[in-house]
């Protein structure tokens, strides 16, 4: 087995701009990174840096203008919709907003069974799997007959995670999966992601603007700015000894519990900004 489950090379993504005089808007300017089986690669950067676009490109939702995306040794960036469907069991997604990502008119059982039905899993087997999935994400089995609106944001995100796990994927693109949740719920859902990884060996491409979250989750981290990766490597190394001034700013902006230290970091950050690095 290749040590690269996902391999992105020199990826360029452009969005069309209305009007024939306008050239397309280039969002990713030749991005390269890889994800190994069972690891978490964090993608961090300010709003608009292109993190979501990169995740969408992996999912086939934003077409690549140039470059390649290889999954398990197979080029996937130009796949047709039909061929994409065969990958659905391998690559899944958890979106940011648990309030809009679940169909409000379906019961939890229907939501979790849908991907299994598409895979022609027999009804009895599907029902047993739904129970197991709920158990895996810490929800009671009587959740099956209820609707999404009967659950809190954190519980809904657990349901979204259960749905992503239904087909036993090897890679999940997590796009800001905790940023709509309050802090204590965030911590519990992050722990759940880690527990699931320890148990199943799934890999995550984990998108967040929050360096504290990325640091908690990632084995390796890519720091994005203006559609480029400005720093990439082992998470401990990047966060302990950042090379790029932008990474240093992100680190200084991340909250710390000690108010004196927080004040000192704010001053350091202002110094960096004055030096013209922002
Ligand atoms: N469908 C689209 N059509 C045109 N431009 C888009 C589209 N989607 C995103 N963009 C633009 O691409 C750039 C990158 O957006 P993207 O959502 O990938 O960034 P991001 O880092 O995920 O930001 P955020 O953290 O705010 O979600 C932004 O300037 C955005 O306006």
From TrEMBL:
Gene3D superfamilies: P-loop containing nucleotide triphosphate hydrolases
Lineage: Bacteria, Bacillati, Actinomycetota, Actinomycetes, Pseudonocardiales
Pfam families (alphabetical): ABC_tran, oligo_HPY
InterPro entries, per the entry: AAA+_ATPase, ABC_transp_ATP-bind, ABC_transporter-like_ATP-bd, ABC_transporter-like_CS, Oligopep_ABC_C, P-loop_NTPase
GO molecular-function terms, A-Z: ATP binding
Name assigned to this protein: Peptide/nickel transport system ATP-binding protein
Family listed: Belongs to the ABC transporter superfamily.
Organism name: Kibdelosporangium banguiense
Superkingdom of the source species: Bacteria
Keywords, comma-separated and alphabetical: ATP-binding, Nucleotide-binding, Transport
Region of interest: Disordered: 255-278
Domain ABC transporter intervals: 6-251
CDD domains: ABC_NikE_OppD_transporters
Bias kind Basic and acidic residues: ranges: 258-278
């Amino acid at each position: 087995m290749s040590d690269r489950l996902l391999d992105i090379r020199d990826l360029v993504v452009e969005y069309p701009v209305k009007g024939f005089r306008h050239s397309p808007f280039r969002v990713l300017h030749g991005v390269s990174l890889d994800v190994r089986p069972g690891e978490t690669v964090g993608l961090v950067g300010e709003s608009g840096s292109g993190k979501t676009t990169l995740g969408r490109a992996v999912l086939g939702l934003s077409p690549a203008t140039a470059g390649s995306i290889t999954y398990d040794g197979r080029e996937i960036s130009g796949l047709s919709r039909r061929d994409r469907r065969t990958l659905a069991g391998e690559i899944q997604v958890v979106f940011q907003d648990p309030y809009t990502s679940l169909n409000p008119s379906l019961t939890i059982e229907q939501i979790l069974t849908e991907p299994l039905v598409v895979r022609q899993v027999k009804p009895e087997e599907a029902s047993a799997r739904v129970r197991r999935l709920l158990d895996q994400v810490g929800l009671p089995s009587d959740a099956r007959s209820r609707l999404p609106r009967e659950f809190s944001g954190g519980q809904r995100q657990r349901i979204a995670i259960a749905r992503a796990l239904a087909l036993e994927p090897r890679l999940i693109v997590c796009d800001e999966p905790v940023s709509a949740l309050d802090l204590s719920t965030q911590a519990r859902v992050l722990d759940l992601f880690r527990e699931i990884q320890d148990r199943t060996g799934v890999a995550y491409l984990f998108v967040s603007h929050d360096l504290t979250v990325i640091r908690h989750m990632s084995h390796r981290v890519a720091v994005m700015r203006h559609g480029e990766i400005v720093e990439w490597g082992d998470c401990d190394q990047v966060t302990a000894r950042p090379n790029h001034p932008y990474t240093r700013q992100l680190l200084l902006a991340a909250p710390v519990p000690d108010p004196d230290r927080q004040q000192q970091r704010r001053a350091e950050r202002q110094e960096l900004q004055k030096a013209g690095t922002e």
